[in-house]
């Protein structure tokens, strides 16, 4: 009998709830054979310890030309080309890249951005409130805020934020955009950033890209022109697309059970814990994440993943593993180990920008509870819909009232 390989991502019954298959697989099957949107197959991991192993064990390599294609485009999607022409994602090349960037993403340095992020959030909320209730929180707050932050961070004009938003969405396609559209986005983006790098090298300012160009031009520098372009692309995709989605998701998750939002209004000290619990519980944003390729046979309980197989370490499923988190489905902003979630990854590829992402989410939540204490979902939970066709899932427009 021919094996029926399920399509992945799995369908779900409720927008904010995980697909039932995750819990079923955690209970009975450490490795599941699944079919990706491209038609290629991969091995899905859902248990916390297994996912952590795939993210940290050097036997599992990040991407590469032998990896299963994720997207329906000819090149297989962002993972198959994001750092082409560089050695940024593997071995010593990756460690070198991280060493050069890590000084720019310390918690202390990111905290210095809090007043600027707060000012941007207040300005956008001023405009939202002025436009009146109801309003599309996604389009008029969740999306533009991280784009403005990233533009300021890399020294790009804020007037170009719509270009950044378009390029990032096209480059993150699973099924939504054609190969020609993807190719054009890369050409336009790389040309834009190349010009920006040249401008910053000639006339550096007080921004990250200027700092990186000076590092790359110094005697101990190792960042090539192509690596600078790939770095800005990584910052754009991680710092804008995922954070804007997470702002909308956080708002929806808190308002879907209104007492969660009210609890933070009553006790703003819960902001930090609430953000961590939202990051742990979200099931919509990164269901494919960053695939790995097994460099050699690897055993998970009694199942062997063969060398050359592509592995999908499902972080949102791992974040709900009862082996790691007691009553994992329960929302608890006081959960002691919530920050052990794998949303930002772990190990050598732990997200460099996570201090900024956390800061933005904390600022957003603090601003919303202070200025819009009567906030509600206009259409309730039933009015929330998943974004489809993109590597970063998340939600379609989140409409709110106050």
From TrEMBL:
UniProt entry tagged with the keyword DNA-binding: no
Classification via InterPro entries: Cyt_P450, Cyt_P450_B, Cyt_P450_CS, Cyt_P450_sf
Annotated keywords: Heme, Iron, Metal-binding, Monooxygenase, Oxidoreductase
Pfam families assigned to the protein according to its UniProt record, in alphabetical order: p450
Iron recorded as keyword: yes
Family, per entry: Belongs to the cytochrome P450 family.
Listed name of the protein: Cytochrome P450
Species, as recorded: Nonomuraea insulae
């Amino acid at each position: 009998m021919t094996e029926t390989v399920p399509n992945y991502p799995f369908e779900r019954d409720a927008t904010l709830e995980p697909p039932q298959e995750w819990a079923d697989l955690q209970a009975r099957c450490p490795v599941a054979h699944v079919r990706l949107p491209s038609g290629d197959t991969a091995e899905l991991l859902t248990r916390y310890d297994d996912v952590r192993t795939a993210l940290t064990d050097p036997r599992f390599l990040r991407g590469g030309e032998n990896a299963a294609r994720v997207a329906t485009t000819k090149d297989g999607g962002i993972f198959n080309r994001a750092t082409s022409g560089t050695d940024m994602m593997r071995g010593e090349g990756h460690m070198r890249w991280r060493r050069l960037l890590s000084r720019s993403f310390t918690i202390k340095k990111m905290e210095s951005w809090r007043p600027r992020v707060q000012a941007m959030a207040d300005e956008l909320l001023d405009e939202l409130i002025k436009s009146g209730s109801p309003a599309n929180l996604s389009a008029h707050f969740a999306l533009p805020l991280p784009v403005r932050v990233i533009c300021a961070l890399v020294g790009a004009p804020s007037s170009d934020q719509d270009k950044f938003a378009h390029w990032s969405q096209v480059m993150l396609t699973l099924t939504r955009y054609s190969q020609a559209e993807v190719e054009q986005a890369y050409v336009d983006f790389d040309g834009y950033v190349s010009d920006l790098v040249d401008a910053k090298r000639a006339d550096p300012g007080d921004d990250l890209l200027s700092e990186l160009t000076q590092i790359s031009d110094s005697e101990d520098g190792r960042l090539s022109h192509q690596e600078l372009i790939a770095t800005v692309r990584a910052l754009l995709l991680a710092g804008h697309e995922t954070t804007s989605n997470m702002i909308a998701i956080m708002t929806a998750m808190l308002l879907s059970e209104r007492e969660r939002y009210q609890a933070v209004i009553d006790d703003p000290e819960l902001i930090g814990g609430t953000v961590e619990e939202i990051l742990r519980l979200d099931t919509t944003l990164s269901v494919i994440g960053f695939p790995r390729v097994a460099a050699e046979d690897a055993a998970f309980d009694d199942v062997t993943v063969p060398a050359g197989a592509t592995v999908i370490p499902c972080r949102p499923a791992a974040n709900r593993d009862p082996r790691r988190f007691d009553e994992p489905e329960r929302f608890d902003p006081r959960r002691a180990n919530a920050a052990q979630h794998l949303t930002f990854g772990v190990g050598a590829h732990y997200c460099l920008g996570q201090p900024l992402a956390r800061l933005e989410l904390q600022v957003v939540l603090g601003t919303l509870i202070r200025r819009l204490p009567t906030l509600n979902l206009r259409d309730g939970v039933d009015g929330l819909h998943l974004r489809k066709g993109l590597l970063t899932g998340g939600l379609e427009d989140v409409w709110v009232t106050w």
